[in-house]
Amino acid sequence: MCIRDRIIAEHSRCQPGLPLPQGDSQPGTSSFEGFHKTKSIGFFLRSEISILFPDFNSSKFLPKISAVIKKIIQNFSVEKVVVNHDYEPYALKRDDEIGSFLREKGIAFETYKDQVIYEKNEVAKDDGNPYVVYTPYSRKWLAKFDEEGIEYFPSEKHLDKFYKGSNLPELTMDDLGFIESKITPKPFKFDNKTIDRYEETRNFPNIDSTSRLGVHLRFGTQSIRKLVQKSSKRKNNIFLKELIWREFFMQIIWHFPYTVNQCFKKKYDRIDYLNDEKDFEKWCNGKTGYPLIDAGMRQLNETGFMHNRVRMLVASFLCKHLLIDWRWGEAYFAQKLFDYEQSSNVGNWQWSAGCGVDAAPYFRIFNPHEQIKKFDKSLEYISKWVKDLNEPTYPTQIVEHKMARERCLTKYKAALNPS
User: Fold this and answer.
1) Which of 213, 236, 235 is nearest to 226 (CA)?
2) What DSSP designation does 393 have?
């Protein structure tokens, strides 16, 4: 049980509660304002919540949470509002405003950690400063976890505490601002085999051995505590370390909120990107003439998912081969990915562009041809998504690799080392 364990467990000591899986966390919002758009996730959320809460009806899934709370306190006797922490700048501002409003009305406002094991300053350097490099962060995270273990909140034992009234308006997904989608996320896989073979298979997109848990972590339909507990018991800890990466980026966005739309390494904001809109459109549509790039983008557009190895490649290609601002790519991913989380998306895009925490050096430029030899030698993944690969209609390469590499190095050097 999740959505959300901590809220339900803590609230079980109070009067009957009204659960509000809130819909205004701007799931399609990104760092590039031109791409703000609701995503087609409402139907996934409704189906997942109905599994966890059989008596759920969409009247309790409402759009603007601040407006909902104001309406509720007009119609119900509310003693307190209990929420779980969110770490994105928008969410922090929202929760601060809601908390202030409630306290003015004499209503308690309580917040709890839930969607991560360790948050904010709980894993920090000995001097109290935040880690900006993953490896030492993960070492301290693991040491702390080994010492403390996990506290569970068995929320399923308290479901009878929910308010059982039915006098709220019934809303459709259209009312909530969601767009119906023909895309449905694949079921997640989280068994011992997936964990044990993760390191061995994770870089090969044709195998499709990833867990597909990202969307469930994003919306709280699977408990992070259970995922960490199970993966920590296996001999191979690479899967667990991927979960730690998620928390690393969450503490980064909490400590450095400016990174949602600015480079962590601020001198990288001096880069003179080309930002060619026609090239960007070709990248978005998977028509660059580079098969592995195109396969990844077409998979994203058709399924709302892209294999992680390929995400790294398409991001690097956009920033370095096409010299398009990482914020454009981050925004497009925000629009398309079912598993979009702002902290991870921003963190990984800045990693690819070389401008973020623990980032790849700017002179590391993936060769798309060599990436095929390493990770899709049989062309199985490419053939699945690029149906026109051997057709005359398949586009010529948008840019020549060697020229693009040299151009990128020149641009980056000029920005980072001005004379």
Assistant:
1) 213
2) T
166-169 long-range contacts, Cβ below 8 Å, gap at least 24?
Answer: 166/57, 166/59, 168/59, 168/60, 169/59
Tell me how long the chain is.
419
Distance separating alpha carbons of residues 192 and 239, to the nearest angstrom: 11
Please list the residues that pair with 17 across neighbouring strands.
Answer: 162
For the stretch 330-360, pLDDT in tens is 999 999 999 999 999 999 999 999 999 987 7
> What is the distance between the alpha carbons of residues 219 and 195, in angstroms, rounded to a whole number?
21
Q: Which helix (H) or strand (E) holds 348?
A: helix 342-353
Q: Phi and psi dihedrals of 162, rounded to 5?
A: -70, 150
CA distance 44 to 75: 30
Confidence band, pLDDT 50/70/90 cuts, at residue 169: low
CA atoms within 13 A on the CB side of 249: 20
> For residue 176, what pLDDT is reported?
63
The pTM for the full model equals 0.85
- The mean per-residue pLDDT over the stretch 20-45 comes to 46
Distance CA 342, CA 347 (A): 8
Mean confidence (pLDDT) of the chain: 86
**Cα-based distances in Å from 403 to 259, 286, 355, 409:** 30, 21, 22, 10
Contact (CB, 8 A) for 347 and 252:
yes
Please give the structure tokens belonging to residue 366: 């993936």
Identify the sign of the CA torsion 293, 298, 299, 301.
Answer: positive
370 token code pair: 């060599």
C-alpha span between 279 and 281 (Å, rounded): 5
DSSP 12-65: TTSS-B-------S-TT--SSGGG----TTHHHHHHHHHHH-TT--GGG--S-H
